[in-house]
Design goal:
The chain is α+β, with helices and mostly antiparallel strands and about 170 residues long. It contains 4 helices and 6 strands; from the N terminus they run βββαααβαββ. The protein starts with a strand and ends with a strand.
Length: about 170
């Protein structure tokens, strides 16, 4: 059996007061879960930082380039793009290279929102979009004791590791 490990990371900051009018119709999505009552991310696409980190982990494991290579934020076709399309491309790349996903480990750093109440739905969404079992996905969260911008409430950072295998 051939194994590969991938590591991916992404972060987005919340829109500021000055930027709020520019992003007034945008929603906050984490793992394709709509988070009510919070500002959205400043992002070209839908800004789903979890899906972006997972894409980067899968691409990393295959020795490929990051999400920005495949979906540049300079391309207007990617404006407000649903991050499920990004993950679909990552899944396609994994399959093209003859690998399967064994498991994902995701770490989310933020002050808000609270991740535990939505973690099961995030796992279900990822499992459905990647064709794996939700039990093959772990999600942990931290505030980093408020020592980083993420722990201070300025945005969210996600790190993801993946184990790929080929029989």
């Amino acid at each position: 059996m051939n194994l590969k490990i991938g590591l991916g990371k992404d972060s987005h900051r919340f829109v500021t007061d000055e930027e709020l009018s520019e992003f007034q119709d945008k929603r906050l999505l984490l793992g394709q879960v709509l988070v009510e009552g919070m500002r959205c991310f400043k992002a070209h696409s839908d800004g789903d930082v979890i899906y972006h980190a997972v894409f980067n982990a899968l691409a990393s494991g295959l020795g490929l380039k990051s999400i920005g290579h495949y979906f540049p934020d300079t391309d207007s076709a990617n404006k407000e793009k649903d991050s499920r399309a990004f993950l679909s491309k990552a899944r396609e790349l994994v399959e093209q290279h003859g690998y399967e996903i064994n498991n994902l480990a995701i770490v989310i750093e933020c002050k808000a929102p609270k991740i535990d109440p939505i973690s099961d739905q995030i796992k279900e969404n990822l499992a459905n979009d990647l064709g794996i079992e939700s039990s093959d996905i772990s999600i942990t969260a931290t505030t980093g004791e408020g020592m980083t911008p993420w722990g201070q409430g300025l945005g969210v950072e996600v790190t993801c590791s993946v184990l790929l295998y080929q029989e």
